[in-house]
Design goal:
The protein has a single domain, classed as Beta Barrel (Porin). The protein is mainly beta. β12 and β13 form a beta hairpin. Helix content is about 5%, strand content about 60%. The protein is built from one helix and 21 strands. The longest helix has 13 residues.
């Protein structure tokens, strides 16, 4: 869970303290399942993700929480190359003419653990701290965060200052490749092998005694927030977040098509991204009670020095259906501009740019989410939930920069995926 999400949960729980009762132990368990399919009817990634969280709560502003997450991912993932009017060969798989190239061998598992605690300094101040660790077959991450929360105006206003740090290591299957070299060339640096004895290194060039072999990325985050209880029905929250990332940020599995004057591929080369990234966010939230119901409005503006700007609008309405049932319809719209080094492809024989990526996640994109959660309170200590969402991503299917053969094909197939989550939470 990101720092901003942790702070938001902590502040909201504190400001609604008069409506909550502290419990000795709280638990929350859920299972997420989602699968992707594009407009060419190609199946993409499928995910199964069970999550369990256990909280020891001494008071509303005094708790310790442990969370464990397991992800199982499989299916096919876009490798960055364009659809073309010829069959394409990517060493270990072939792609039919007219279809977006997907690597069918995509699979991974991830374990993640988070430990968070909120403790009071005194009646009007407290701190939120946490530790995190996650491990994949080709990626490891460890992090820590700390925030200070101060109440004013009879606890109607809360100011928050916080920071976080994470240390990540990338260790790709197949090793590291020199940027803009052909995918048919041997890797420049083999991936480190599992070792039984130390032998130095730690940079992705052989065995290493480090728990984090590979190339390193470090992230430094800061956040400032203010929350205000406008009246007994309405809560306002504003946050500003700043994040600086330094280190290896290239996706070691993404490639770019090199095309001739007719728009047909003649080669494929490995991408290259900048080694630094400065990210900023502004977010505003408005929550108000409407009888026994509540309306939740959120707006988030994101920008970075890669040239990406994103506007995100999020609406939820918590609808009570009697004393035991509730329904939460949800709508989300996100509009993103492309990174300044995003390229559909590279032209054969022309000078190479300093950075380039054809990863569709860095392109102009609109994402819409429509769904709803349904909850059943079986008793005072047990609630069951079911959540279903349809997420749809669309981009520029026929960009103006496409040439020749590229204009005959869909350069950004629409992507649709369904997410189903079943959960249980309660206390004892």
């Amino acid at each position: 869970m990101q720092l901003k999400e942790k702070l938001g949960l902590a502040v909201c729980s504190l400001l609604t303290a008069t409506q909550s009762q502290a419990a000795d132990w709280l638990y929350d368990a859920s299972v997420l399942s989602y699968s992707e399919k594009d407009s060419q009817q190609q199946d993409r990634v499928s995910v199964i993700e069970p999550v369990i969280s256990v909280t020891k709560q001494n008071a509303v502003d005094d708790y310790v929480q442990f969370q464990a997450v397991y992800d199982s991912l499989s299916g096919a993932s876009p490798n960055g190359a364009n659809a073309a009017g010829v069959q394409q060969n990517f060493n270990n798989f072939l792609v039919r003419p007219g279809f977006t190239p997907l690597d069918p061998g995509f699979n991974d598992t991830r374990f993640a653990f988070n430990l968070n605690w909120l403790k009071p300094f005194d009646r009007l101040s407290r701190y939120l701290a946490g530790l995190s660790f996650s491990s994949e077959t080709d990626y490891k991450s460890a992090g820590a965060n700390f925030s200070y929360l101060q109440d004013f105006d009879h606890k109607r206003t809360t100011l928050t200052f916080g920071g976080a740090y994470s240390y990540d290591a990338v260790n790709p299957h197949g090793g590291f490749h020199d940027p803009f070299t052909s995918i048919y060339a041997l890797p420049a640096t083999p991936a480190p092998q599992t070792q039984t004895s130390p032998s130095g290194g730690g940079t992705g060039s052989g065995e290493s005694e480090s728990l984090f072999p590979g190339k390193i990325k470090q992230t430094f985050e800061g956040i400032f927030g203010i929350s205000h209880v406008l009246n007994r029905f309405t809560l306002l929250n504003f946050t500003y977040g700043l994040s600086y990332v330094n280190g290896y940020q290239t996706d070691p599995y993404k490639i770019i098509s090199v095309i001739d004057s007719a728009g047909l591929p003649v080669d494929y080369v490995w991408e290259k991204r900048p080694g630094t990234r400065l990210k900023q966010t502004l977010k505003g939230s408005f929550i108000t009670a409407i009888g026994r119901d509540s309306l939740h409005l959120n707006y988030r503006y994101y920008w970075d020095d890669w040239g990406i700007h994103t506007n995100t609008y999020d609406v939820k309405y918590h609808l009570g259906l009697g004393s035991l049932l509730y329904l939460v319809p949800h709508y989300r719209l996100s509009q993103q501009t492309q990174a300044n080094f995003y390229r559909l492809s590279l032209n054969n024989g022309q000078a190479l740019p300093e950075f380039a990526s054809a990863d569709y996640r860095l392109a102009d994109m609109t994402t819409t989410t429509l769904g709803s959660m349904f909850g059943v309170r079986l008793n005072a200590k047990l609630t069951l939930t079911a959540n279903i969402e349809q997420i749809r991503q669309t981009g520029n299917n026929h960009p103006a920069i496409a040439i020749g053969d590229q204009r005959r094909h869909d350069m950004f197939p629409d992507l649709t995926f369904w997410a189903l989550t079943f959960g249980v939470r309660g206390k004892w």
